[in-house]
Structure formats: structure tokens, C-alpha cells
Backbone:
């Protein structure tokens, strides 16, 4: 297939008509000094670096990564320090009865009392609940990373679609401007023929009407191009007032892959599907952890305590302090909990099964999407030779119509019809290339190709 490449000026969206009439030979306005030359991949990188959608996805990944540490802490030792100071404004008293039936009071304590203790608890055996919960947190962290990459792929598709839309709008500006310039030249030619008496005034009026009709089309095209460019800036996270020149072109780039290969790649690499699979794994581990709550826990406990009291000054002396230490084992086993954990385990098992069913549904959806995107791309690809040939034939027909009119063998209406046919063919060619590029971007999105969130725009 013949490679079709349509070059679009970098300053396309800043085109102006000129001081008087528009002319096809008018040069595009020079770019402002701080104009940003932007390719499609540059726009994607800006969106991933600066866009709010990507920033939110990164925070979700950080949250999931941090959750692993929270779960892991259940397997690590915990050391706690407790310290206190009491000033006895009125010392406590204890009473002892004597043989006469009266009570004797004894004042205890000192004016200043200090205490400090260190408590250590280390899990020794958790019946598998900690390991299962940690594995679930790891799977969810991996799922969050895949989900982040899925967001990056979504941003990639959104920005590319906006970029190609801006390219198409810019091309339509150029075609509308050139079409107006062509109508103005034809009007000048007919005016000269009327002045010489070799053309009817009706032809001149018809040419003037056509020129007037084409001016609003240029205005509309420029307005649509400005809107498309601002939409691209918004998608890429760029300031709307920043001047931008698009450096890519609408072009045909062959995509060689069978439908079966596309489906296989999508099932293997689609980030959204990979995230769902990891979530299903995590749900299974979470159910195991929940079931283990009916089993015993064994801890190693240790305690060290220091205390002191004094009334002779602020700090106690060596003989006014005491220390103690202990170490032991603690077994915790929930014997009866009113079947609460049994019910919670049933919930967790059902959630895990639901996650597995969701994965299967998503696999079928991805399979269908890959087949549909592949078919759309191939259908659009087959249109390209036809629209290319249509432009070639329309140019030839227009040239013949002009020669026939100049020779007096046809009317101005024939030239006008040929001109309109050429304009429509050129617009159809650009629209087909736009649809092809968007279809290619959509297929690659379905295949899981594109930038990753971690590399902020780099390929996986």
C-alpha cells in the first residue's frame, strides 16, 4: 500500500488571511518566541507529569504500598514505654484494725513518685493470619500499580485523541483558507473576462456569491481549531494562554498484527485486567486471613519496670528506687464469638468468588474490545487508498474543468462543481487519516501499550 503522509505547518492553528483577501500562497504567521513545539508524545508526557488525573493515581499507588507496612507490622515486635510522675499533695493512707476494735492509720508514699516501664510483645505464632493478610496487601499494592498504569493508558488515549483532533481542525483551517483563496482568484479571472466582454455577468455574480459563502467557513474552521487546541492544552495540563505549535502530522503508519495476536496481547498485557486478577488473588488471601481468626495466637511478652519515691528533694536517690522485670508467653484463642467470625469468613469467601467472576467477565470484554478495535482499524485502513485516489482524480477533474471553461466549452457551474468536489475529497482524506490515527491509538490502548505511571511517560 502506498504510504500517505500529509504535512501540516507547525503554525497551522495561527493562520491568518492577510490584509485584504486570503491567498493560498500566504505564509503562516511566524511562531512566537516562547511557542512550545508539541508532539503527541510530548503532550502525553506533560499530562502524566502535570495532570491531576495522573497525580491522583500516584497517590492511590502510594496508599496501597503503605498498607503493606501496616499489615507487616502485625508480625514485628512492639516496644512500648510508659512513664509517669505524681506529686502527692496529700499522701494516701491505709487503715489496720487493732485488738481494741479501732483502726490505726498509716501514711504511705512520698511527696514525689516516679514510675517507668518498657513492655515488649512479639508475635510467635498467628495460625497463618498475618502471612495471608500480608500477601493480600502485596497483591493489592500490585493491583494498584496496574491500575495506575491503566490510568496512564487512559490519559495517553485521551491526549492523543485531542492532539489528532487539533491536527484535523488545523488542516481544515488550511483547506478552507486555500479554498477561499482559490475562489477569489477565480473571481478575479472572471472579472477580467467580463471586462473584455467574453464572459456573462451571471458568471461573475455566481463567483462573487461563492466567494462570499466561503468566508464564513474559514471563520468557523478557525474557531473550531482554537477550541480543539485549547482542549488539547487542557488534556495535557498546559496553561491555556501558552502558545503551542503542533509538530506531528496526520499520517498513515501500517499496523501489522493479526486479530488473534491482538486478542492474545490484550488478554496478557491489559493493565485493567491485570489489576482485576491481582484483586481476585488478594480477595482469596483475605478470606484465608479472616478464617484464621478462629485459631490461636501466641505472643512473647516482656516487661521492665523502674519506680522511685522521695520526699527529700525532687529526684530519688539510689535507695529510694526499685526495679523489676518479667518475661512470659501469652496464648489467645477465641473459643466462642457468637459465630461472628464464621459469618465474616463466609462474606470474605463470597467476595473472593465475586472477584474471580469479575475477572472472567472482564476477560470476555477485553477479548471483544480487541476484536472490535482491530476490525475498526482495518476498515479505516482500507479507505485510505480510495480517498487518496479521490483527491488525485478530483485535482485532475478541476484542472480539466478550468481548461474547458477557458476554452468556452463549459460553464462556470462546471468549474464550481469540480472545485467543490476537490475540497470535499481533500477534507475526506484528512478525516480518514484522523480516524485511522484515533483507531490505532484505541487499539494500542486495548492492547495495554503505552506509558506507565511510574516512568511518567516512559514506555513500559
Residues:
Amino acid at each position: 500500500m502506498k504510504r500517505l503522509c500529509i504535512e501540516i505547518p507547525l503554525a497551522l492553528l495561527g493562520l491568518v488571511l492577510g490584509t485584504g483577501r486570503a491567498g493560498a500562497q500566504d505564509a503562516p504567521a511566524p511562531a512566537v518566541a516562547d511557542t512550545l513545539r508539541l508532539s503527541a508524545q510530548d503532550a502525553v508526557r506533560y499530562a502524566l507529569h502535570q495532570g491531576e488525573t495522573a497525580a491522583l493515581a500516584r497517590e492511590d499507588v502510594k496508599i496501597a504500598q503503605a498498607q503493606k507496612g501496616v499489615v507487616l507490622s502485625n508480625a514485628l515486635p512492639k516496644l512500648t514505654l510508659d512513664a509517669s510522675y505524681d506529686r502527692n499533695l496529700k499522701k494516701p493512707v491505709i487503715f489496720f484494725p487493732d485488738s481494741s476494735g479501732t483502726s490505726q492509720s498509716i501514711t504511705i508514699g512520698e511527696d514525689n513518685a516516679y514510675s517507668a516501664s518498657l513492655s515488649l510483645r512479639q508475635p510467635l505464632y498467628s495460625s497463618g493470619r498475618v502471612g495471608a493478610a500480608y500477601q493480600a496487601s502485596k497483591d493489592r499494592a500490585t493491583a494498584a500499580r496496574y491500575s495506575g498504569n491503566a490510568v496512564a493508558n487512559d490519559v495517553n488515549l485521551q491526549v492523543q485523541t485531542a492532539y489528532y483532533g487539533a491536527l484535523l481542525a488545523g488542516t481544515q483551517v488550511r483547506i478552507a483558507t486555500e479554498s477561499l483563496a482559490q475562489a477569489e482568484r477565480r473571481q478575479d479571472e472572471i472579472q477580467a473576462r467580463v471586462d473584455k466582454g467574453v464572459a456573462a455577468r451571471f458568471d461573475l455574480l455566481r463567483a462573487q456569491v461563492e466567494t462570499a459563502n466561503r468566508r464564513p467557513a474559514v471563520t468557523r474552521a478557525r474557531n473550531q481549531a482554537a477550541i480543539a487546541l485549547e482542549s488539547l492544552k487542557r488534556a495535557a495540563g498546559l496553561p491555556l494562554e501558552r502558545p503551542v505549535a503542533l509538530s506531528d502530522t496526520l499520517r498513515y503508519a501500517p499496523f501489522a498484527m493479526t486479530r488473534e495476536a491482538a486478542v492474545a496481547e490484550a488478554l496478557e498485557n491489559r493493565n485493567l485486567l491485570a489489576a482485576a486478577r491481582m484483586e481476585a488473588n488478594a480477595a482469596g488471601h483475605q478470606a484465608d486471613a479472616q478464617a484464621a481468626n478462629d485459631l490461636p495466637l501466641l505472643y512473647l511478652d516482656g516487661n521492665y519496670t523502674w519506680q522511685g519515691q522521695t520526699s527529700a528533694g525532687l529526684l530519688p536517690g539510689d535507695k529510694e528506687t526499685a526495679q523489676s522485670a518479667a518475661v512470659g508467653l501469652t496464648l489467645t484463642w477465641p473459643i466462642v464469638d457468637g459465630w461472628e467470625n464464621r459469618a465474616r469468613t463466609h462474606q470474605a469467601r463470597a467476595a473472593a468468588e465475586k472477584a474471580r467472576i469479575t475477572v472472567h467477565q472482564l476477560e470476555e470484554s477485553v477479548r471483544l474490545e480487541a476484536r472490535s478495535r482491530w476490525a475498526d482499524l482495518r476498515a479505516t485502513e482500507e479507505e485510505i487508498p480510495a480517498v487518496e485516489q479521490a483527491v488525485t482524480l478530483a485535482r485532475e477533474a478541476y484542472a480539466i474543468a478550468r481548461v474547458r471553461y477557458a476554452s468556452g466549452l463549459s460553464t462556470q457551474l462546471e468549474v464550481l462543481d469540480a472545485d467543490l468536489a476537490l475540497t470535499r475529497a481533500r477534507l475526506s482524506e484528512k478525516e480518514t487519516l484522523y480516524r485511522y490515527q484515533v483507531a490505532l491509538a484505541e487499539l494500542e490502548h486495548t492492547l495495554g501499550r503505552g506509558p506507565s505511571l511510574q516512568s511518567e511517560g516512559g514506555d513500559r
